[in-house]
Amino acid sequence: MSILHSKIKTKSGNKLLIERELSFGGQGRVYLAHKIKTSKAVVVKIFNNKFNRKILLERIEFLISIQEKNSFEGIELPFDLIETKDLIGHCTAYIDSISLEDYLMNSTSSITERLETALSIAKQFKHLHGLGIAHGDIRAQNFLIQTEKRNLNVHCIDIDNFNHASAPEPNMVGEALYLSPEQRDKLSNDTYYPPTIETDLYQLGILFHEIVLLLHPAHGNDNTQEELENAMSGVWKLDPTVSKETKNISISILNNQLCNLFRLALVQCPKKRTTTDNWIKAFQNAIERIYHCPKCNTPTIVDSSKIFCPQGHLFELLSLANAKTNKKLCLNGKSFFIGRAQFNDDIRISNKQLLISRIGPELWVEHIGTNPTKYKQNGVWLDLPKYKKIKLCKNDFIKIMKHELKII
Question: Measured between alpha carbons, how far apart are the two ends of the chain, in Å?
Answer without folding.
Answer: 75
